[in-house]
User: What shape does this take?
Amino acid sequence: MTIWKATACAHPNIAFIKYWGNTDDQLRLPVSGSISMNLDGLLTRTTVEFRDDQASDTALLGGKQLDAGAALDRITRHLDYARQLAGTTMRASVNSDSNFPTGAGIASSASAFAALSLAAAAALKLQLSEPQLSAYARLGSGSASRSVPGGFVEWYPAQTHEASFAETFAPVDYWELTDIVAIVSKAHKSTGSTEGHSIAATSPLQSARVATAPERLARCKQAILNRDFETFADVVELDSNVMHSVMMTGNPSLFYWQSTTLALMEAVRDLRRQGIAVCYTIDAGPNIHCICAPGAASKVAEYVAQFPGVLEFKQAGAGRAAYLEQ
Ligand code: DP6
Assistant: This one.
């Protein structure tokens, strides 16, 4: 019996400049570039085992066997790409665990597909460069391209599979930002990102978002490189607001905020006016990412912990690249 096996770990990431909408939904080529930071406290660990005695792929996620259906098909399609490169038809068992709630706006698909891509490529002994691995991860989930490289990362919106990958532009220890993720719901969101991306173009605001995204991206990148929190906070909140405006005004309209989400957004702006260096950003879910400048995290964590409606919080600094477990 032949068994090819590898285990990989990857962090999710939080986008400071968001990905919302594709020019090609199949290849997940984004309409605009995005910027993110990997989150070190949060981790997905995935083992992939290709075996020649198995009839179909199986997946154990968080200890639960995935039934046949769309989620398993997505994994199989993703593994097919690696199988094709390796010239094998061996089926695989996937075993994956995350130490944070999945499907609720903490980009769980990012760490999941980054870890799956790295483990599958290593198990099949594919020699992929980091950009090639990032582009492969992108096929599974767009934001997963950004969980492959470490630290502060930019994902390029190119017209071809090979050119749309993410790359580090500042190393993990460049700026000691902390993400305090305020969890207000652990429920699985009703409309996932994949469907959301295909709806984006129906909003009359999407063309304006896309037209102005490069300027925000350049401003955000420069603010990170300058460690300029004031500029960073302005552009990060703006970009999140612009994306949510698109979500709310599409057809069907997507509304991810809950009352606690909005209350905490206002509170974060108040804290900033009081001199605490923190800003918010929100993905496709109700949870609030409070991004803190160096020195602000403990005060913000204390504040978030007692905020009405917050169930719990997670804390993470900048995280390293996806890696193989030896
Ligand atoms: C709102 O990468 O989860 O978090 O490619 O369909 O898996 P798929 O979408 P996904 O979209 C992430 C959207 C976002 C913004 C971001 O992370 O940039």
In short: Residues 15, 18-20, 28, 34, 107, 109, 141-143, 193-194, 197, 283-284 surround DP6 (CB under 6 Å). The mean pLDDT is 95.
